């Protein structure tokens, strides 16, 4: 689900975040509190997040496009 005007930053308690651009959109990777890997990305003025376990950043980046 999209959330209007969501800042592209890791969730509260996230750590080790890295900002980048994916297909011209702002994005950030982070480690979640429960051991999952998080990807936050902006699209059309909304923020979206993908949470995963055992999926590397490169694969998450492909899923976000």
Outline the structure in words:
This protein has one helix and five strands, in the order E-E-E-E-E-H. By secondary structure, the chain is mainly beta. A five-stranded antiparallel beta sheet has the order 1-5-4-3-2, with helices on one face. The protein is globular and about 30 Å long. Residues 1-6 have low confidence and may be disordered.
Annotate the secondary structure layout:
Elements: E1 3-4, E2 15-22, E3 25-31, E4 37-43, E5 46-52, H1 57-63
Antiparallel strand pairs: 1-5, 2-3, 3-4, 4-5
Q: Report the sheet-strand fraction.
A: over 45%
Question: What's the mean pLDDT score?
Answer: 77
Largest sheet: 5 strands, antiparallel
Show unreliable segments.
Answer: 1-6
Quick structural gist:
With 65 residues, the chain is mainly beta.
Q: Which terms summarize this structure?
A:
11% helix, 5 strands, mainly beta, globular, 65 residues, disordered N terminus, 1 helix
């Amino acid at each position: 689900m999209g959330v209007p005007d969501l800042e592209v930053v890791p969730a509260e308690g996230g750590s080790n975040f890295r900002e980048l651009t994916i297909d011209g959109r702002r994005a950030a990777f982070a480690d979640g509190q429960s051991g999952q890997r998080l990807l936050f990305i902006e699209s059309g003025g909304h923020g979206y997040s993908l949470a995963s376990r055992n999926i590397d950043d490169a694969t998450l980046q492909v899923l976000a496009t």
